[in-house]
Design a protein that fits this description.
Blueprint: E1 9-13, E2 22-26, E3 45-54, E4 60-68, E5 102-106, H1 108-113, E6 118-119, H2 121-131, E7 139-143, H3 153-156, E8 172-173, H4 175-179
Parallel strand pairs: 5-7, 6-8
Antiparallel strand pairs: 1-2, 3-4
Length: 180
Amino acid sequence: MFLFLSLVFGIIASKRSSCSDIRVVDLSHVHGPEPFTAPFFPQYNFTIVNRSYSPFLGGNWFESNYIGTSEHSGTHIDAPSHFYRNRKRMHEIPLEKLYGPGVIIDIRRQVSRNVNYRVRVSDIRRWEASYGRKPKGAVVLFNSGWSSRYPDPFKVFNTQNTSDITSYQFPSYEFNAITF
């Protein structure tokens, strides 16, 4: 089974547990004719196969489309197997691991001073000093402001040559911050 996720949702929950306390935030960019695709992957393909009344379906309307896209198009999730051999692929990750209580930590100021800024444990601790301990198992998101560069690949990768991956510059994470 192949699970393709073109949308990423952050679920932000308050301390209470009723469904009315949950807010879903859609973090995805539009996925369509001009989505962002890494320069070395095939581009998005949307083809109309049929849009007509079908005699095979009793004269009822029938639409069918073909969509072809790289797994690295638009907003997406990378499975652990993307960078590590013999690790889980998307269809092996339980859905419960892809949502939960969440926090958003603003690092726009740091990124405005250093486009290669790496999120640190100190950023998380600073957030916790203001808002309290992050919930156990929380999805921790960082607002770097980088999404304003989307979908221009030259701006997203902060380079003049999108074919040279060694020239890419963008915010990321220190390993300790990922495991904190």
